[in-house]
Amino acid sequence: MDNPAVLLLLLEQGNRSLVDHTKDFVYLAPLTHYPDSCLCTFYRAGLNIATKASSLTTEDDTSPTQDPEPSLPASQHAEFEPEPTADDEPEPRATEPKIATEPEPYTSDQVREPATATVP
């Protein structure tokens, strides 16, 4: 089986170090045509349970926000009321985007006579 795409899908860390597994993955990945999102999924799926568990408990110190605020659920977004302006009138709400309909095919109402060649 010399197909890099298949080898990449079958690649598992097993008892090897994370460095060795990553080297093999980085070698095979450019030889395939998988999109990056799929490659990330394949890499994570090939890790052993111990590596997966340790990566879940490791904190990422590179985040500029130490304790990010969670996003509001969609139900709370719908209840949001705009703040009043200086005139005590609320700002108008955003409306649904208007999607243009398909344009009608252009047909001319002018009639053209067919061109005829005059023979002398």
Which labels suit this protein?
mainly alpha, 5 helices, 120 residues
Largest sheet: none
- Give the end-to-end Cα distance, rounded to a whole number of Å: 77 Å
- The structure class reads mainly alpha
How many distinct beta strands? Answer: 0
Q: What is the residue-mean pLDDT, rounded to a whole number?
A: 74
What best-fitting shape do the alpha-carbon axes yield? flat
Beta percentage is under 5%
Quickly count the helices. 5
Unreliable residue stretches: none
In angstroms, what is the radius of gyration?
Answer: 31 Å
Order of helices and strands: HHHHH
Query: In percent, how helical is the residue content?
Result: 25-40%
Region (Disordered): 54-120
GO molecular function: translation initiation factor activity
Organism: Labeo rohita (Indian major carp)
Biased composition (Acidic residues): 81-90
Molecular structure report:
- This protein is mainly alpha-helical and 120 residues long.
- It has a domain at 4-57.
- It is built from 5 helices and no strands.
- The protein has helices at 4-10, 18-28, 36-46, 49-57, 74-78.
- The longest helix has 11 residues, at 18-28.
- The model has no long low-confidence stretch (mean pLDDT 74).
